[in-house]
Specification:
alpha+beta; five-stranded mixed sheet; globular; disordered N terminus; two-stranded antiparallel sheet
């Protein structure tokens, strides 16, 4: 079972960038997206600082963020990768199942991937993830390379938004029509 201090602060920079972007989108009336906290059970606490020093995750989390963009239900998970190859082991089957069920309810589900070594954000559609997932299930690669990704879903910074994922949602919607 995973514990709180085994995960360290992975993704905390990415999370902060997304949270700031969500605040900007909310302030401009473009979207209302919230971070979903991961339920934990504290095991050890520092008596002086009252900080949790060890905890167990109560259940598997589904996605990091959920909300609405202009009336469209949206959920996504944020992943950070420091190399040009993304291991599919970073995505869990229960997350994929939740996202597939979410899209069956006419929502949009996706992954935001931050390639930290190159400071590049990528909007990974659930459709594209399914391609990589199927390849893995069929005995192929258990990862995907950046050069396999669709160029149009990279998210260059613009208009003051740190992680402009609404651009990815717009492209995603256009391809569904």
């Amino acid at each position: 079972m995973a514990t709180w201090n085994s995960r360290g602060l992975r993704g905390s920079t990415l999370e902060e960038l997304i949270n700031r972007t969500n605040d900007q989108y909310r302030e401009k009336g473009l979207a209302l997206i919230q971070k979903i906290p991961t339920p934990i059970t504290p095991v050890k606490m520092d008596r002086n600082s009252r900080h949790i020093t060890l905890a167990y995750f109560e259940q598997k989390s589904t996605v990091d963020y959920i909300g609405a963009v202009q009336g469209i239900p949206v959920c996504f998970d944020a992943k950070e990768c420091c190399v040009k190859t993304f291991p599919l082991a970073n995505i869990h089957p229960h997350q994929v199942t939740f996202m597939e069920e979410f899209e069956k309810q006419r929502g949009i589900a996706f992954f935001l991937i931050y390639f930290s070594a190159d400071n590049i954000f990528y909007y990974l559609t659930l459709r594209k993830l399914r391609e990589f997932w199927k390849r893995m299930e069929d005995g192929g690669r258990k990862s995907f390379r950046r050069d396999e990704l669709d160029e149009e879903f990279y998210l260059p910074g613009k208009s003051g938004f740190l992680v402009p994922y609404l651009d990815g949602i717009q492209k995603d919607l256009q391809l569904r029509d």
